[in-house]
Amino acid sequence: MTSHEETRTEIRGKKVKKSLIFLTIAMAILILGPRLLIHARTSSRITSNTADVPNCDVGIVLGAKIFPSGALSQVLRDRVNKGIELYKAGKVKKLLMSGDNRVSHYNEPQRMAEYAIRAGVSPRDIATDFAGRRTYDSLYRAKHIFGLDDVVIVSQRCHVERALFIADAVGVRAHGLAADIPKHSREYGDVKMAIREFPACLAVLVDLYVRHPRVVMGSKEKI
Question: Which residue range forms the structural domain that includes residue 60?
Answer without folding.
Answer: 42-211
